[in-house]
């Protein structure tokens, strides 16, 4: 009957859905890597494309190899060094605790004068500096709970680094065949979204690039500067502190929360003048995101920064670090659809 779905059509739809579900479960183990590869390719393509145009399309293969080597050195090597530093710091600290050679410097008496937390911080710090084993035993429940959280976060970071390394190689392939990939995505978006397909596709691309520059790049800059400062002043477990700064910056917490304990340690292990210089240096790192984010996050992007930030944070809480991009893109697309709807003359 006209207007009704026939049995044959219904069977076709069911079979198509089953086939799509089957395909999804086949590629499910690779979805995360492919998503990361797409994000990396989108973020790095402008640099890669300029390099190809400058040297010449005829030498595209050579440019791709050189680009891969340079990008690997600039991105993956620091990640490996950070991971190695964290592991070395953790093993060294554990070994010192085991051999009774681990010592925490005594706090400066001025810590008592700090508002609200001064007295409690001074008492706990003093107790830990006298006998770390006794202090650890007394507060083992809190230490184990916080330690397991930190270990899980570090394990997730290492896993993400491995996925990132694999995805980077796939991203290079995506960039090499960018023309075909762009045409395919353009056709797909036009089929799904009609005349707005191109605009949605370009907005998604710009959103991903904005999040990479405004969140991840800022986090890496803050973590790198922090690591330099920690090493210069001689902060114990500099790798662990750097990892915490990186995590705090990615999840959009003020990095000064992590830098304050480092500043306290600096005043206990160093002379006053270097410690003051280190404090000023840390404060500059702490406020650097207020300058860098407005410059990088919303540059050349029509979507309001608050939409990107909310989408990134909410997406990460829901999907992990990959959600930084997924959440931002989804909210940006919905924001565009909302504007299109409220500005439409069709009020039905």
Low-confidence stretches: none
Structural class by SSE content:
mainly alpha
Rg value: 25 Å
Number of strands: 0
Query: Span from first to last CA?
Result: 29 Å
**Oligomerization state:** single chain
Largest sheet: none
Q: What string gives the helices and strands in order? A: HHHHHHHHHHHH
How many structural domains can be distinguished in the coordinates?
A: 1
Mean residue pLDDT: 76
Overall shape:
elongated
Strand content: under 5%
Helix content: over 70%
Tally of separate helices: 12
Main traits of this protein?
348 residues; 12 helices; mainly alpha
In short:
With 348 residues, the chain is mainly alpha-helical.
General description of the model:
By secondary structure, the protein is an all-alpha fold. It has one domain. It has helices at 7-55, 60-98, 118-130, 132-138, 140-176, 178-193, 197-233, 238-250, 256-269, 272-296, 305-319, 323-342. Helix 1 packs across helix 2 (60-98). It is elongated and about 80 Å long. The two termini are 29 Å apart.
List the topology elements.
Blueprint: H1 7-55, H2 60-98, H3 118-130, H4 132-138, H5 140-176, H6 178-193, H7 197-233, H8 238-250, H9 256-269, H10 272-296, H11 305-319, H12 323-342
């Amino acid at each position: 009957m006209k207007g009704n779905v026939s049995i044959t059509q219904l069977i076709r739809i069911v079979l198509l859905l089953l086939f799509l579900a089957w395909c999804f479960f086949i590629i499910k183990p690779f979805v995360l890597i492919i998503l990361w590869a797409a994000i990396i390719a989108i973020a790095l393509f402008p640099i890669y494309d300029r390099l190809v145009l400058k040297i010449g399309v005829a030498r595209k293969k050579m440019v791709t190899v050189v680009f891969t080597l340079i990008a690997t050195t600039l991105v993956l090597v620091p990640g490996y060094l950070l991971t190695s530093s964290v592991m070395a710091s953790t093993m060294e600290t554990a070994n010192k605790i085991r051999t009774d050679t681990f010592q925490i410097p005594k706090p400066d008496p001025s810590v008592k004068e700090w508002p609200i937390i001064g007295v409690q911080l001074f008492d706990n710090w003093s107790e830990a500096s006298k006998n770390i084993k006794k202090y650890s035993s007394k507060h083992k429940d809190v230490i184990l709970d916080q330690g397991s959280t930190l270990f899980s976060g570090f394990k997730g970071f290492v896993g993400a680094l491995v996925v990132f390394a694999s995805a980077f190689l796939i991203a290079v392939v995506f960039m090499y065949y960018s023309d075909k990939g762009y045409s395919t995505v353009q056709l797909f978006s036009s089929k799904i979204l009609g005349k707005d397909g191109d605009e949605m596709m370009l907005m998604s691309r710009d959103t991903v690039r904005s999040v990479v520059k405004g969140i991840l790049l800022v986090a890496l800059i803050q973590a790198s500067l922090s690591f330099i400062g920690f090493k210069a002043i001689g902060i114990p477990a500099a790798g662990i502190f750097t990892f915490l700064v990186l995590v705090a910056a990615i999840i959009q917490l003020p990095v000064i929360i992590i830098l304050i304990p480092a500043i306290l340690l600096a005043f206990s292990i160093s002379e006053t003048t270097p410690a003051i210089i280190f404090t000023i240096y840390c404060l500059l790192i702490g406020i650097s995101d207020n300058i860098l984010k407005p410059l990088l996050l919303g540059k050349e992007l029509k979507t309001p920064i608050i939409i990107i930030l909310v989408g990134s944070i909410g997406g990460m809480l829901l999907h992990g670090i990959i959600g930084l991009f997924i959440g931002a893109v989804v909210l940006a697309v919905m924001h565009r659809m909302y504007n299109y709807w409220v500005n439409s003359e069709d009020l039905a």
